[in-house]
Glutamate racemase
Amino acid sequence: MIAISAKVKQMAVGIFDSGLGGLTVLDAVQKRLPDVPFAYFADSAHAPYGVRTADDIYEKTTAATQALFDAGCDLVILACNTASAAALRKMQEGWVPEGKRVLGVFVPLIEALTERSWGDNSPPREVDVKHVALFATPATVSSRAFQRELAFRAVGVDVEAQACGGVVDAIEDNDLILAEALVNSHVDALKRKMPHPDAAILGCTHYPLMQDAFQQALGEDVKVFSQANLVAESLADYLDRRPEMIGSGEACFLTSGDPKRVSNSATQFLRREIQFQAA
Ligand code: DGL
């Protein structure tokens, strides 16, 4: 069980990831919504999630979300595709307590790819992109959640998924040289299956930290979609409709791992001082 200390009670919108990847989402939502306090929780002690089973991911994601609820958040964003893919649907179907909300990062991305505005539930239709490369963790790829959500909205889109083993570990270990080498080899593997994608999805919130490497390996004519700004827009829209979810607490950064180590890596990634505290 994870418990968050009482001194951070009364906080506001919770942002959860297994580790540092959700900081790419946090950065974008903070820029878009500078007056909203965010409580970021990194389950660094258990990262990476992407090599775990769906049941294990569900258990860890519900424990982390519960800890954010207990600390005073009414709304938690799963800034983690792996948790969104493997756990969110089951959480929304029966686990989320009354008065609380949990949102994921998949749908805003798929709405952008399929040229839809928020909540457009009209039948699936033809869209511009025809050949989409999906880069994600092994658990996200095997869940097929991306293909399922896409099929609700678009027809005739060919998706080739590449499970990018090792990239999250390399980023968490701050080994960007290894991360770049792995990105190149995963893009090569994808191109052997789909030589000319029109679009690529960075379906893991860690990957925007390697966006230049993905773009370079894919080539300039492939449109690379990453989530941060899309999630920020969609959250702004949601909070406009549900302002009571904002709260009035203080922003904070919490981790189940070693706060010093996590703070160092986070500061390097976001290029601004980030101080994590122990959850
Ligand atoms: N950043 C997360 C995601 O979006 C989790 C990666 C992991 O822990 O394997 O999938």
User: Anything to note?
Assistant: The longest strand covers residues 131-136. The chain has eleven helices and twelve strands. The mean pLDDT is 93.
